[in-house]
Design brief:
Helices cover about 80% and strands about 0% of the residues. It is built from six helices and no strands.
Length: about 150
Amino acid sequence: MRSSSQETHPWQRRSRSRTARAPAFFALMRAWAAGIVVLLLSQYMLWSAVTEPLSTAEHTGAFGWRLLLFHLPTLLCAFLATLAASRIHPEPHRDRPVPHLVAGLTVPLANRAADMALNWRVLSVEGIAAPTAAVLAGCAIAVVLDLAMDGGRQ
């Protein structure tokens, strides 16, 4: 017969597993919050300092100007948001690659998906491909830099 100290109720076992996942959940939420704040601030600052003052009909007509005014700031914002979220993601959770990538990449990729969903009627092929490539490049550069800052730890 089991002693009362060894017996556990099924609800007690379930609550222990939920509390074990809580720190990982809150670490993920903190990383996403940092990514959202950095993304919104960088988008606002780049829009008001670069894109809005320089956007004229002649500038937006040329691909080089569109690249400079729209797609490079998109790359920079995705880079900053990914790097901020990745660096804020705390140490015990960043040792596992999949949760660490989820923490870093969710904000810029979700922002890009939301932007495409909200503007799908007015997007051209360039309007889909170029910003998506800019976001992916910014995320990739940030992930590589985050790994380099960690000393190449996996």
